[in-house]
User: Fold these one by one.
Assistant:
Number 1:
Amino acid sequence: MSHNVLMETDVPVLVVGGGPVGLTLAIDLAHRGQRVLLVEQRDGPSEHPKATLLGSRSMELFRRWGLDEEIFAAQMWLASNEGIFVEPASAASIAGLFKTLNPASGRAYDPGKIRDGARIVCTVTGHGLKDVDVAKDRCSGVINSKADRKEILHKIGL
Ligand SMILES: Cc1cc2nc3c(=O)[nH]c(=O)nc-3n(C[C@H](O)[C@H](O)[C@H](O)COP(=O)(O)OP(=O)(O)OC[C@H]3O[C@@H](n4cnc5c(N)ncnc54)[C@H](O)[C@@H]3O)c2cc1C
C-alpha cells in the first residue's frame, strides 16, 4: 500500500524534521500553548546516537519545561548510588530512563518498545562541579578542607 497519502491540514506552525532542533522547537511551542504539527520523514529513532553530550544551556530549556527537578534527582541518584557525579544536563538520559520505567511519572517512552534483554546505554558526561551553585544548593552541606587527601578522607569519615 502506498504511504503517499496527500492530506490537507491547517496548522499555525509546521515544523519539518524531528531532529534535536525540530523536536525542541515543537516541544517549546507546545509548552507556550501554540498548536504545532511536526513532520518527520523517518518512522523511528535514528540508528546512531547523534547527541551523546548535552551542554549546560540545555538545562535552561529543561527548567522551562519543568523537567529540571527530575534531572537533578537523577544526578543525585547517580552520585549517591554509583559514586559518579556528572554535570546536571547529562543526567537527563538517566531521568528519561527512570521516567520510562515508572508508570506513575508519565512515561517518556513506551517500555513495551524495549525488547527483553536489551542493553540500555546512557552516556553521562562532565563533572558535577561544573555548575557549582547547583551542587552547593543540592548538597546537604559543604565541608571545607585543604586539598589534602588525608584531611579530606578524615573529614568525610573514611
Ligand atoms: C555521530 C554523531 C554524534 C554527534 N554527537 C553529538 C553530541 O554529542 N552533542 C551534540 O550536541 N551534537 C552531536 N552531534 C551533532 C548533532 O547530532 C546535530 O548537531 C543535530 O542532530 C542537528 O540537529 P538538527 O535537528 O538541526 O538536524 P538533524 O538531526 O539532521 O535532524 C533533521 C531531521 O529532519 C528530517 N528531515 C529532513 N528533511 C525532511 C523532510 N523533507 N521532511 C521530513 N523530515 C525531514 C531528518 O530525517 C532528520 O530527522 C552528533 C552528530 C553525529 C552524526
Number 2:
Amino acid sequence: MIIKDVEFGEVIVRKSPLARGIKFSVSTSGRLAMSVPKYTSDFLVKRFLNSNRKVIREKLPIKNPAEQRARDYQKKQLAKKAREYLPYRLEFWAKKYGYSYDKCRLTHANTRWGSCSSRRTISLNIGLMQVPEELRDYVILHELAHLNHMDHSKAFWAEVGEHDPKYKMHEKKLKLFSPGL
Ligand SMILES: [Zn+2]
C-alpha cells in the first residue's frame, strides 16, 4: 500500500505477518518504505510516521516527490537496456564455456549484483548496465561458475579465474560501484 505524505512524497507501507515492530528503510526509488506488522491500522501507521519525522529526516536519504519520479524513469530506462542486453550476454558466455542454466532473471536489489540459485536460475542486477563492460562480464562469469560450485571454494575461484584471469582486480573494482541507483 502507498500513502501520500506532504513531506516525504509517496510512502510505501508493507504489511507483513513477520514484522515485529515498525521499521523504516529507503526503497530503490528513494521513497520511504515502512514495514509494519500485518494488523497495524492505517491510523497507527500515520501516527508512527508523524512521531518519527525528525529521525527519518536526519537518518534516511529520502528523495523529494519529483526526484522519486525521476528515479522511476531512470530505473525504467535502465531495466529496458538491461532486458535488451543482459540475457544475451549471459547466453553468449554460457555457450562459449559450455554452461547450461535454466533461466535468467533481472533484479533490482540494492545489495547484490547477481546470484545463482540451486534451481539454476541466474539473477542479474539491472544496475550492471552502469558499470564497465569488463566488470559486467566478470559478474556473469562469476554466477555461471556457481552452476558448478555453489560456494566460494578454491575450486570455484579457480574456475572463475580460468574464464576471467583478472577476476581479483574486477572483484575489487566492483566495490567502487553500488547496485542501487
Ligand atoms: Zn558468488
